[in-house]
Amino acid sequence: MTEKGYKGGLVSRVKNKYSGKRYVISTAQEIGMDYWVTVLFPGILFGLLPALTKKIFTVVRNNKEDAHLVHWKIKEIVINTPESNWLTKWPESEPPEGWSEDAKKKLEEKLGESERLINFMQENPEQGEVIKKDFKDFLNQPHIKDLTKDVFREMTKGPEDEQN
């Protein structure tokens, strides 16, 4: 089920057909900013509400149309793909055309000490791409993928899983 959210946003409450777990997908423009964010949350209270403190994934886009396309793609993945395979199908968190100015500022705020790395990557795009590629290669190593899956499994545990 998808509902129109506030000011052109979208909210979907979905159930993974493999695990039966419920999730909430929310897409909205960041208040006062020039970018849109799609966030996947585990559902609570029969999947009606998002567990706001347990974001699973965040994907940023610079305009409403792209954000809505990402929302629909994530909805399809969450419903029809086992959780263990989500990472192979998930859209990139970074917009294809790069971060908007507001998104860059927010990212710098959140990363804090990594500001020098962000500045370096922005000032040296070729070397920044090498760093991103190296990081992606690192993430694609089999033992890192397994660790990521374990962490993801822990993040997506529902209340019924924690009782066991």
Summarize the structure.
The chain is α+β, with helices and mostly antiparallel strands and 164 residues long. The protein contains 7 helices and 6 strands. A hairpin with a 4-residue loop joins strand 4 (36-44) and strand 5 (49-50).
Characteristic key phrases:
6-stranded antiparallel beta sheet; alpha+beta
Sequence-ordered SSE layout with sheet pairings:
Elements: E1 2-4, E2 10-15, E3 22-29, E4 36-44, E5 49-50, E6 57-61, H1 64-80, H2 86-89, H3 101-111, H4 115-123, H5 125-139, H6 142-155, H7 159-163
Helix pairs in contact: 4-5
Structure description:
With 164 residues, this protein is α+β, with helices and mostly antiparallel strands. It has one domain (2-163). The chain is built from 7 helices and 6 strands. The chain has helices at residues 64-80, 86-89, 101-111, 115-123, 125-139, 142-155, 159-163; strands at residues 2-4, 10-15, 22-29, 36-44, 49-50, 57-61. Helix 4 crosses helix 5 (125-139).
How many H/I helices? Answer: 7
Strand % is 15-25%
Poorly predicted sequence stretches spanning 5 or more consecutive residues: none
How many structural domains in the coordinates? 1
The structural class is: alpha+beta
Shape: globular
Strand tally is: 6
* Strand and helix order: EEEEEEHHHHHHH
Main β-sheet, in a few words? Answer: 6 strands, antiparallel
Quick check: average pLDDT? 75
Distance between the termini: 30 Å
Rg calc: 17 Å
| Secondary structure: helix percent | 40-55%
